[in-house]
Amino acid sequence: MSAQPDLLIARMKSGDQTAFTRVYDRYQEALHGVIYNIVKNRDVSEEILQDVFIKIWNNSESYDSQQGRFFTWALNISRNASIDYLRSKRHKDSLKNLSSDNFVDVLETSDDLDTATNAIYLKKWIEKLEPMCIKIIDVIFFKGFTFNDGAKELEMPSGTLKTRHRKCMMALRNMILN
Amino acid sequence: MDTQELINSGDLELYVCGALELERSIEITQALKNNIPLQLEVQIIEETYMKLASGIAPTTNEVELFDKLQAIIGKDNSESNTSSWSNYIGWAAAVALLFGGGYLYTNNADLQENNTSLENQLVTTEQEKEILNTEVENTRQVNNDYEEALAFIKNKNTVKVNLAGQKGFESSYATAFHNPVENVTYLDVAGLPAAPQGKSYQLWSLTLNPLMPTSLGVVENSNDLLRIENTNSSEAFGITLEEYEGAEGPNLEQLYTLGVIN
């Protein structure tokens, strides 16, 4: 486990490319996963990942640590960029079939992930998760719904969503971190 | 809402996901300050999400991807004249070459000046590198400390002891994590006010029957967990305010916090 690299982020904000490289190394894979889960196309996800890090570099001074984690800030940029792509004419003109519903569908049906070591571990973990947990984590983490919108989407009281989300994450983290 | 209630509430997971209202997120950021158990919890949550998301990242040629990115960022930098030492040195070298070719004999003084400037820039770059390396090392050390503290707190033999504010000091608090097998106690004193000039807080290990205090030393105000070797058969902990160098016995009129091991 490691703390948020505040010093590196501060250096990046002041224009240090070396610090930016280290920030990229730390966060790129997770952000790539979030982007891929939304756009479901490897080439497109790589392009969006690149755009996301250009935005991170160009707008790093707008990250306000009082408002939340750096990862959360970068996560929002990644989701927004991916959703913008889905709404774009370029996407609508493509013939890609995007019938997959959540991250487990993506994990199980994508050819791009077959050989990824992380994916192999993830498959083992999610086999043990309750189906409701998969829906909750998909909506709240991957799709980026707000708490209240997520409760509406999943048709459950917001208090229940919060409790279940915590319970699901506890189950997942016990598997992942142990 | 105390630390454990906040951890159990599920708000920290939503905080990391970015699913909370901005106002609530700012409140949580405030709560995280000076609260190491909360910070550790948030780090674990974030790491879990990152590992989860990494499982859905397609295999890529990371080097190629980053080279493309760097080419774009480097280009933007040169256009906007923001600082990039490598670009700047390259540019300065080109200028030096131009001078060297065209004005080798007539402008030797200028060339010398450019060389000196280049050397200065190289020295500055080396200094920047050293600073960054030091910061990385510091960050690594902080990470190691966090990991060590987390492993200690998670240990099945570690017990948490809440040291509540005593009469006259009700707003003060501290938390001890004591492991009688390892003979180590971690102490969080972020809930104590700054010690007055010339005074120090002193931590006491107590046995209850008979009531017997043993000094575990003076403790500085700190936002970090303090690690203390403790071979005593502690049944309770207390913190008093004493003279700067500490006292032989506790001044019970200045007993700030006290907590019994359950």
Question: What order do the helices and strands come in, and which of them pair?
Answer:
The complex is a heterodimer of chains A (178) and B (262).
Chain A: H1 6-13, H2 17-39, H3 42-58, H4 70-87, H5 89-93, H6 103-109, H7 117-127, H8 131-142, H9 147-154, H10 158-177
Chain B: H1 3-9, H2 11-17, H3 22-32, H4 36-54, H5 62-80, H6 85-102, H7 108-154, E1 159-165, E2 173-179, E3 184-188, E4 199-208, E5 211-219, E6 226-229, E7 236-243, E8 255-260
Antiparallel strand pairs in B: 1-2, 1-8, 2-3, 3-6, 4-5, 4-7, 7-8
Helix pairs in contact in B: 2-4, 6-7
Q: Could you provide a short overview of the structure?
A:
Chain A is mainly α.
Would you write up a description of this structure?
The complex is a heterodimer of chains A (178) and B (262). Chain A is mainly alpha-helical. Chain A has ten helices and no strands. Chain A has helices at residues 6-13, 17-39, 42-58, 70-87, 89-93, 103-109, 117-127, 131-142, 147-154, 158-177. In chain A, helix 8 (131-142) packs antiparallel against helix 9. The longest helix of chain A is centred in the first third of the chain and has 23 residues, at 17-39. Chain A is globular and about 45 Å long. The termini of chain A are close together. The relative contact order of chain A is 0.09. By secondary structure, chain B is an alpha+beta fold. Chain B has seven helices and eight strands; from the N terminus they run αααααααββββββββ. In chain B, strands 5-4-7-8-1-2-3-6 form an eight-stranded antiparallel β-sheet, covered by helices on one side. Chain B starts with a helix and ends with a strand. Mean pLDDT of chain B is 81; it is low at 78-106. The chains are: A mainly alpha (178), B alpha+beta (262).
